[in-house]
From TrEMBL, chains A, B:
Gene: curA
EC number(s) from the headed UniProt entry: 1.3.1.-
Source species of the chain: Thalassovita autumnalis
PANTHER family in UniProt: PROSTAGLANDIN REDUCTASE, PROSTAGLANDIN REDUCTASE 1
Residue ranges constituting the Enoyl reductase (ER) domain according to the UniProt record: 17-342
Enzyme class: oxidoreductase
Stated name of the protein: NADPH-dependent curcumin reductase
Record keywords, A-Z: Oxidoreductase
One Pfam family linked to the record: ADH_N_2
Keyword Metal-binding: no
Keyword Oxidoreductase: yes
Superkingdom: Bacteria
Length: 344, 344
């Protein structure tokens, strides 16, 4: 084995990515330098944030350069190491990208213990998405027993973590998801009190009416990861003193420069601003990379619950590096069910 | 004296209030019942929030009923009392409305000690507006020395309190006000580092460029009381982790149903939402009536600073009840300088 494969950003998408925005390339297998570790990946993660990295817009992280490898966290087996902390055969997590192999400084990698469960958990329920749900809910949601929480993408790795944690804390939890199958999964697998299929409602007004029925005491926490129609439906139902941890807005990710003019011809900002004032809401934007100093606490708290089956997770696995772009494009449209992973 | 005068809401305004929306009426002087106190007002307060009370829209407080007395806090001398805590000659503050006299239960009144400074301070710097600035800044702004704060309506009773407190805590403070005279006052009287005249800039973009010059290290706290063009100018300049205490949006108060479609034809909400996410902002809506349990702390902390001249205040006094509507309408357009008061 002297070669590796990876997928590069062939061009910047306009709107929703298409196949031509990606290109599968072959490259020489890297030789690890001082302190570096070479890993043969078994799986990598596909997450909505990667859509943002494809745009050349100023954001909290640098965009993927044109012809650069698409960004992703992955797991795999160490096949060569110049770092004392890693030996061949170890299983490691790192930001290797959409690739068959990766070579990174050992200090940027995290060793996984396969005894703690499937290694893919490090990409989802016990990785960045699960950690995002935990940190956002606990730090900014400030959940209290008896309150009502709403989260969309309910069967995704963030939404399902938020919902299950909130249920375990005694909240009423209402999910929103795309399609009857996911809604059933939110209730039966993840224990949500109810889950609404946003596709069954023509507009925000219809969705709001259904949400109002499902939330007779209003909404205290809206964990925001989708925006768009769901945000519009939720806002008027927020209770006084409500909290909105805001970590994503997938409904708007495909609009080119994120956030530019995706709405209608009516400026909704004054209405939002008024709602925040009148309802005394607390809106907290957060980026999970700011919180990694608490990752150890997260693993300690949530790891045993995952191992014990108290927190469940669902994965959607695409097989083969060449199928990553299609899986990614489908995910942005809600075509996946559970944490989207690529297996190599 | 057997009669009193008061101003009632004659009809609900469409957009900016006009003279015909108000009516001066004469009524018999009330006779205080059990536990009630009759006060002859010397001054009452005009504040932007009163515009919201004129609309029949669901909000955090009930609207003024048609033909009901316009709401206001006022101060004056007790002329009759059936409450053991008040005697004729005492000076009291209460929500008497736009009126020459008022009769309220003694338990709803606060006795003022004229030795502590002019009684009008209870309407501004040591009343609801000053308290709004203090509570919003300290609880939600979380100011730290070396940071940069921006506040508009800089010479108003909220903005001038926020700016002076922030200066005393070691922040760089940039004001925004309407007109060169107010800008000069913000710097010379209130000690702001700089103050921009929003009228000197054609649009949000031009104002933003000037703000960027005045805030070379970005903006950490935007104390929001105006919205509109200022909000649009400020948002892109917010630093990561910035805070926005949000207590008002006077730029949008005259649009009938507050917050409905005052913006342009582009939906600015996605851009705002993106900024909150990318910059990890914390937006806190608050209504000062939720915080009155801390009013004693406020008086204890800020009262001595006002008495000692460390916190200064400016009042704009209209004379005569009949001139209250004109003064109120002017204030909504920024025609006042300092705390707007009506003297009787």
């Amino acid at each position: 084995m002297t070669e590796m494969q990876h997928i590069v950003l062939a061009r910047r998408p306009e709107g929703a990515p298409v196949a031509e925005d990606f290109r599968l390339e072959t490259a020489p297998l890297p030789v690890p330098g001082d302190g570096e570790v070479l890993v043969k990946l078994s799986h990598f993660s596909l997450d909505p944030y990667m859509r943002g990295r494809m745009d050349d817009a100023k954001s909290y992280a640098a965009p993927v350069p044109l012809n650069g490898t698409m960004e992703a966290g992955g797991v795999g087996e160490v096949i060569a190491s110049n770092h004392p902390g890693f030996a061949p055969g170890d299983i490691a997590f790192g930001m290797f990208g959409w690739a068959s192999h990766g070579c990174l400084p050992g200090k940027e990698l995290r060793k996984l213990d396969p005894a703690h469960g499937p290694v893919t958990a490090a990409l989802g329920v016990l990785g960045m998405p699960g950690f995002t749900g935990w940190a956002g809910l606990m730090e900014y949601g400030r959940p209290k027993a008896g309150e009502t929480l709403v989260v969309a993408a309910a069967t995704g790795p963030v939404g399902s973590m938020v919902g299950q944690l909130a249920k375990s804390l005694g909240l009423r939890v209402i999910g929103i998801a795309g399609g009857a199958e996911k809604c059933q999964m939110a209730v039966e697998t993840f224990g949500f009190d109810a889950c609404l299929d946003h596709r069954a409602y023509d507009d925000a007004k219809a969705l709001r009416a259904a949400l109002a029925d499902a939330c007779p005491d209003g909404i205290d926490i809206y964990f925001e990861n989708v925006a768009g129609k769901v945000l519009e439906a939720v806002l008027p139902l927020m209770n006084v003193g409500g909290r909105i941890p805001l970590c994503g807005m997938i409904a708007w990710y495909n609009a080119g420069a994120l956030g530019a003019n995706q709405g209608g011809e009516v400026d909704q900002l004054p209405k939002l601003w008024r709602t925040i004032l009148v309802k005394r809401l607390h809106v907290h934007g957060f980026i999970i990379t700011d919180h990694f100093h608490r990752f150890g606490d997260f693993l300690k708290q949530v790891g045993p619950k995952v191992a014990g089956g108290d927190i469940r997770f669902v994965e959607d696995v695409a097989v083969g590096l060449e199928n990553a772009p299609a899986a990614f494009m489908a995910m942005l449209g809600g075509g996946n069910t559970g944490k989207q992973i690529v297996a190599l």
